[in-house]
Amino acid sequence: MTHVAVVGAGPSGIFATAALTERADVRVDVFDRNPTPFGLVRYGVAPDHLKIKSVVRTLHKTMSHPAVTFRGNVALGQDLTLDDLQREYAAVLLATGAPCARRLGVPGEELPGHVSASMLVDWYNSRPAARKADCAERVVVIGAGNVALDIARVLLRGGRGLAHTDVTDMVLQALNRNPVRDVRVLVRGGAADTKFTPAELTELDKLPDLDIVVDPGELMLTDDDRSRCETDRTVAARVETFRRWSTRSRTGARRSLAFRFRQAPEALTGASRVESVLLRGGERVPADLVVSAIGYRGDPLDGVPFDDRLGHIPHVRGRIGPGLYTTGWAKRGPSGVIGTNKACAIETVAGLLADLPVDSRTPDIDTVLAANAARVVTWPGWLAIDQAEISLGRQTGRTRTKIDDLDRLVEIGSEGGRT
Ligand code: NAP
Asked: Which of 38, 105, 193, 332 stands the most exposed, by the fewest C-beta atoms within 10 Å?
């Protein structure tokens, strides 16, 4: 048996694990800094996107494979080093994602009341130790990707609209206490340049008591936009949705969602916290909360090369160097949908398996973890957490309620792992 270490138990790490377990002579140890598996599916995908979250069933099956061992609550660089992994395993595959926010790079960015998408998403997805967000009546979201749409939709749904999901009661109560009434999405390019996918846009039509506002004057298409609409159905569908919204009159709904095009932020302004976004043309858009949803970057890891300009690990078809590989957003940056990571993992694993030496040593990584006093959560430990969250949800008629207290998760996970 040859042992491979995978760092990151999100979809990309687990898709890679699935590809590795197709070889009967390979065993895979999967590490994650969270005590829980599934990474972005648990803490990134919006809580109301239950269909996307159902990929968990496939991921669960891979992690239950007899050749796979999960060690959660183990952080690379803290509980073990890359050297430890490279010493103990025949190959190491990094699937650590792109967890860092990109900077807006405008004055006022540091003002309270401005948060990155990752901070807000961590909060509403009940990630342990996430900073609590102050919800507010008027929200500006900067960015034109699906994360910006997730944020607008989740905030506009409010606590009542999320009551069937797995978020904590604290999140539901915070959203109910300070209901969001007015969301403006600022797009620096035109409607044709946006990265919104058509299905995510039309999903907004289903939100109750909401006026979606688009100024026809801002929808002007350039010649290039028009020819892209002719050759690219996705671009055409996006533009058509905005055109449809631009012809609507306001209904007097309690809440509104406005898309503003060709509106680049020049500064965030306010005395002691954000009060408005100053646009390049001089207009001030009032806001109590500003969220920048402008993409993510990888987190540089000790001993691993990092392309600071692109924000991910440099590689050739997933190979970083001898015995060291990468997949998912750590490899190619934050792009694509969850399924995109499957083909990405298959490419990396093909190269890894072609290079893999026969190595019959059994890794002694638990000695390293014990020496560092790591409180490891194993797969049975996760199953205990899973049951605890399902039971908690049942108390309020939900399928699950997440536990967001890290110590509690580790406590349940460690006890569950012993039984
Ligand atoms: P994204 O799709 O790359 O969108 C980022 C947006 O931010 C772009 O529109 C970009 O505009 C804009 N931007 C960048 N810098 C800016 C600045 N300084 N000022 C103003 N705007 C700026 O990233 P994302 O929304 O974070 O999504 C990441 C990935 O996850 C994507 O592949 C997305 O499709 C996926 N995702 C999918 C779903 C789903 O399927 N439901 C949900 C969430 C996320 P420019 O184009 O002008 O650079």
From this structure: 105
Q: Has residue 178 got a pLDDT over 90?
A: no
Task: Report the pLDDT value the prediction gives residue 195, as an integer from 0 to 100.
Answer: 97
Tell me the CA distances in angstroms from 316 to 72, 158, 340, one per residue in order: 29, 44, 18
Q: pLDDT by residue (tens digit) across 69-90?
A: 999 999 999 999 999 999 999 9
Mean of pLDDT over the chain: 96
User: For residues 204 and 48, what is the distance between their CA atoms, to the nearest angstrom?
Assistant: 12
Element (H, E) at 30: strand 26-31
How many angstroms does the Cα of residue 389 sit away from the middle of ligand 1?
31
Cα distance between the two ends of the chain: 27
Q: How far is the CA of 228 from the centre of ligand 1 (A)?
A: 19
**What does the alpha-carbon distance between residue 415 and residue 384 come to, in Å, rounded to a whole number?**
8
Query: Which residue's entry shows tokens 């408005």?
Result: 276
- Atom of ligand 1 lying closest to residue 294 CA: 7
CA dist 416 and 266 (Å) reads 52
Structural domains in the chain?
2-99+298-374 (3.40.50.720), 102-296 (3.50.50.60)
Give distance in angstroms: CA of 149 to centre of ligand 1. Answer: 9
* DSSP 3-state of 307: strand
pLDDT tens digits, 296-344: 999 999 999 999 999 999 999 999 999 999 999 999 999 999 999 999 9
Nearest CA to ligand 1 atom 2: 145
Tokens coding 234: 């996705």
CA 329-139-280 angle, 5° bins: 80
Q: How much is the pLDDT for 135?
A: 78
d(CA 264, CA 340): 30
Ordered alpha helix ranges (H), 64-214: 82-88, 117-124, 146-161, 169-177, 198-202
Residue 419 has what pLDDT?
Answer: 61
Cα–Cα distance, 392 to 390 (Å, whole number): 5
Residue nearest atom 40 in ligand 1 by C-alpha distance: 337
Question: Which residue CA neighbors atom 7 of ligand 1 most closely?
Answer: 294
The verdict on pTM exceeding 0.85 is yes
Q: In this predicted structure, what is the pLDDT of residue 416? A: 80
User: Which residues have C-beta atoms less than 6 Å from ligand 1?
Assistant: 104, 142-148, 150, 188-189, 193-195, 200, 293-296, 334-337
Which pLDDT band holds residue 376 (cuts at 50, 70, 90)? very high
